[in-house]
Amino acid sequence: MKKTLMALLVAATFSQASAQSVQIRDAFREMPDSLMPYLSKNNRLDFIDFLDSGMKAEVRNQLGGTSQMLSIADDSLSIQMNPSLRVDMIAMDSVVAVVETFLVDSIYGESRVHYYSATWQPVAQPVLTEAQQQRIRRLEMQNILKRDDDLLNKR
Domain for residue 12, yes or no? Predict the structure, then answer.
């Protein structure tokens, strides 16, 4: 009986630890360079420091261009990697969703969503609530529609 109770206690402790919410700042700091080759770890740290200091968060990326962090909140961030690529990250429970939106000089854009654990291991089919799924869909469409509005206003 004692062994069973102890096993349940240990299992509950591990499940609580694995279900803890991901903090987007921590996840972004620890993100492997291979998942976002545009930016080095120092670039990512600079982004956070610049925004926290009230400065424009702009860095020279690994390809010699300029990338800008547009916003950071407790559970999300947004980066304009270049004029054609925007990356948004959303922390949802123990999953980080990375939405890459490719914006082209037309009325069409395309988004890809990748899911990762807090330790940046790929997650194939995360269990998301309807609200979380809607948030991701809204973000995908918002990025594409914003780009369309910008293009139409230039013409």
Answer: no
Predicted TM-score (pTM) above 0.85: no
**How would you list the strands of the sheet with 76-82, edge to edge?**
58-60, 66-72, 76-82, 85-92, 95-103, 109-117
Q: Give the whole-number percent of the chain exceeding pLDDT 90.
A: 61
| Distant-in-sequence, close-in-space partners of 90: CB < 8 Å, separation ≥ 6 | 24, 75, 76, 96, 97, 99, 135, 136, 139
Residues whose CB falls within 8 Å of the CB of residue 45, separated by 6 or more in sequence, listed in order: 29
What burial class does residue 60 get, using C-beta atoms within 10 Å of its C-beta: 0-12 exposed, 13-18 middle, 19+ buried? exposed
Q: What is the mean pLDDT of residues 130-154?
A: 74
Judge whether 120 and 35 are in contact, CB under 8 Å: yes
Please check whether residue 67 lies inside any domain of the structure.
yes
Cβ within 8 Å of residue 68, ≥6 positions away? 56, 57, 58, 59, 79, 80
Angle at 43 between CA 137 and CA 69, to 5 degrees: 40
What is the count of structural domains for the chain? Answer: 1
- Give the range of the structural domain holding residue 37, as residue numbers without chain letter: 20-154
